[in-house]
Design goal:
Length: about 80
């Protein structure tokens, strides 16, 4: 749907990178490593100071035990 809309409007967008490198999650420790990687990416990029401050992350649900719904802004 998104690609069809973009083609009609002449937009060139890409949400995800083309390459991906799937890995088997073989242990709880490995899963936690991947979760930490995802949570700390916005911190590493300098977007926020703490993982739970990133608006689009579920980190705050785990760290602050705040179970809210992530609100999305409507597309312009």
């Amino acid at each position: 749907l998104n690609n069809s809309y973009n083609r009609k409007k002449g937009y060139v967008t890409q949400i995800w990178q083309r390459e991906n490198y799937p890995e088997v999650i073989y242990s709880d420790t490995f899963l936690l490593t991947k979760i930490k990687y995802i949570y700390f990416n916005p911190v590493k990029k300098g977007y926020v100071e703490q993982p739970e401050d990133w608006q689009y992350s579920s980190a705050r649900n785990w760290i602050k035990e705040k179970h809210d719904i992530i609100e999305l802004d409507p597309r312009p």
